[in-house]
């Protein structure tokens, strides 16, 4: 009897966790931009700094909101550069993974996994399921980067 009740509890717990996981995926699918719980884009990294030496964390006191996303900046010069040209510095696909966008999916990213392509910042997932920037680079070597961007842009426009 104890084994049956613990099995039932396990099945119920698994069902509830699966439901919550699917619910969170639906919430992600409806989100235009990839933001953390505080509404901050790029996990707080300064979007302008990606075009310099390396991504740097921004400061909450130096922020700017663009298209519903809050961006933080390392310094006032970067903040002003972003304000003047936000579409140049805002990440492609609302900050969702560029590799996943090839399949029309919104996947969270590692803000330190990125690539500047033709003056635009493309960010990638890098975690338990692998490094998608490497997958992107491997596919770009076979096809072309321009084709990958074109395909990802097409999928993004459908979302």
For the biggest β-sheet, the strand order reads 1-2
Radius of gyration: 19 Å
Shape category: globular
Main beta sheet, described?
2 strands, antiparallel
SSE order, one letter for each helix or strand: HEEHHHEEEEHH
Q: Which ranges are low-confidence, i.e. pLDDT below 50, for 5 or more consecutive residues?
A: 14-30
**Protein structure class:** alpha+beta
Percent of sequence in beta strands:
15-25%
The helix content is 40-55%
Task: Explain this structure.
The chain is an alpha+beta fold. Helices cover 45% and strands 19% of the residues. It has helices spanning 2-30, 76-84, 86-89, 98-101, 132-142, 145-158, and strands spanning 59-66, 69-73, 110-117, 120-124, 126-127, 130-131. The strands form three sheets. Strands 1-2 form a two-stranded antiparallel ribbon. It has a two-stranded antiparallel sheet with strand order 3-4. β5 (126-127) and β6 (130-131) form a beta hairpin. α5 (132-142) packs across α6 (145-158). The longest helix has 29 residues, at 2-30. It is globular, with a radius of gyration of 19 Å.
